Amino acid sequence: MPFAGFNMPINYKTGIINEHKNVRNHSGIFDVSHMGQILIENNESYLHKLEKYIPLQLKNLIKNRSHYSFLLNKDGGVIDDLIISNIDIKDKPYLYIVYNASRKKEDEEIFFSCTPNAEKIYNKNCLFAIQGPDSINVLKNIIDIPNNMNFFDILISKYDNNEIIVSRSGYTGEDGFELSIPNESAENLITDLLKNENTMLCGLGSRDSLRLEAGLSLYGHELNENITPIEAGLSWALDKERLEDKNLNGNKILSDQLKNNLSNKKIGLISTNKSMLRDGMTLFDNNNNEIGKITSGCFSPNLNKSIAIGYIKSEFNTDNPIFCEIRKKLELVKINNLPFVKKNYKKNGSVYE
Amino acid sequence: MGAYMSEKKYTKDHEWVSIENEIATIGISNHAQESLGDIVFIELPSVGNSVKAKDEICVVESVKAASDIYAPIDGEIIEVNNNLENDAAIINQDAENDGWIFKMKISDSNQYSDLMSEDEYKQFLEQ
């Protein structure tokens, strides 16, 4: 399937549902090399320029940690969501940013306007994610992983005598790792990982159903330039002090939104029958008034029902029934708290949500 | 095999049809099942409906997409495969036998002769 200029597999030979369950029960490997990866020198004047777009205090980012954040436009809308990490590479301090393939053009325009010598590395480094509770066991036979590595920690390790960037992260709701590895070693690494008989290659299809069960937002669906992180229910990812800083795009709009009521709210939905909820379907109240839209929908292998994320008007009382228009018929759907499936991240050696 | 059991034929919409004693059995081809991926739900047609060739009569939902199923020829729906109601994945396992979707009493057997033979369908897939 064509995806952001890449030809990507929706699934490999055993199918989306099998890949999905394998990640939840064991582990699965995703080739996400289509995503953007860039290195920006950790230099105060560059950071200051980037802080116009990124709602974090970039000079205070903890070394060897990753943060979920955004690039914001002047109205506080989301140009992209991204993971930004503070890490030394060959003894030089950098911000390492991973961003969406479909937003490379927009993002890079910003990165290069702030830091002319930013270095795109996605043409020379592949990016793989191994996800699922067994990921640590599969990986530590191949790469040195310290026992105290927590979710969203990031470090440099070695493979094939090459330096690779290892972060304990991912987008499936499971424990897991993302590995940025020079192209020449990529095939060996995949071959080594696949020697574990309980892991398998997984495609975009299961990546989508896994992130949806975990209630995670996807750019182009829950996020776009007309939605702020607050409207998307992601205010936890904003540094609140930065909302008072005029240097941040949309700071006034965002701080007003935090104090006042929003017009829409993000919700999780679950089908009451076997019908599939899909992106773009319209939601109604029991008087046939339109109250919102679905932004992502899929079949949930864990719940054996269709699930969805969408936005509805804030004033709608969610104790009342909600109907989804599916092929010109209105079908009852139920509100479900996000996430649909508990997150399974690692912190201080134990599992946390 | 009865004398009236005909060869299996295919439509350009990737459905198969076989006819016995003026009763047509219809499902989706193995190729269609493979392209759709895991099938999770089927909305079966209503028994007793009279339909025309090319009418949309029911929907197969896979993890990837919803696909309309068309009547391959004119006729009346006389039976549906209720096993699919509980387990639509039967279509993935055996699309062209146990995964049959509905049966029709056909009104014009000439329409059947116009459909593709298995060899013609294979060629059609290669185009």
Overview of this protein structure:
The complex is a heterodimer of chains A (353) and B (127). Chain A has 353 residues and is an alpha+beta fold. Chain A folds into 2 domains: 2-213, Gyrase A, domain 2, CATH 3.30.1360; 235-336, Beta Barrel (Elongation Factor Tu (Ef-tu), domain 3), CATH 2.40.30. Chain A has helices at 16-25, 44-50, 104-114, 135-140, 183-193, 204-213, 251-259, and strands at residues 2-3, 6-7, 28-31, 36-41, 65-72, 78-89, 92-99, 119-120, 125-131, 154-159, 162-167, 176-182, 201-202, 264-271, 282-284, 290-300, 305-313, 322-326, 329-336, 345-347, 350-352. In chain A, the strands form 5 sheets. Chain A has a 6-stranded mixed beta sheet with strand order 10-11-12-9-3-13. The longest helix of chain A has 11 residues, at 104-114. Chain B has a 6-stranded antiparallel beta sheet. Chain B contains 5 helices and 9 strands. Chain B is globular and about 35 Å long. Chain B has a single domain (9-108), classed as OB fold (Dihydrolipoamide Acetyltransferase, E2P) (Beta Barrel). With 127 residues, chain B is of the alpha+beta class. Chain B starts with 8 loop residues before the first strand and ends with a helix. Classes of the chains: A alpha+beta (353), B alpha+beta (127). Chain A binds chain B through residues 10-11, 15-17, 205, 209, 274-276, 278, 298-299, 306, 327, and chain B through 37-38, 40-41, 43, 59, 61, 63-64, 66, 92.
The count of helical stretches of chain B stands at 5
Give the strand content of chain A: 25-35%
Report the sheet-strand fraction of chain B: 25-35%
CATH architecture descriptor text of chain B:
Beta Barrel
Distance between the termini of chain A: 33 Å
Oligomer: heterodimer
**Can you tell me the CATH architecture of the largest domain in chain A?**
2-Layer Sandwich
The H/E string of chain B reads EEEHEEEEEHHEHH
Sum up the overall morphology of chain B in one term. Answer: globular
Number of strands of chain A: 21
Major sheet: arrangement of strands of chain B:
1-2-3-9-8-5
The radius of gyration of chain B is: 14 Å
Helicity range of chain A:
10-25%
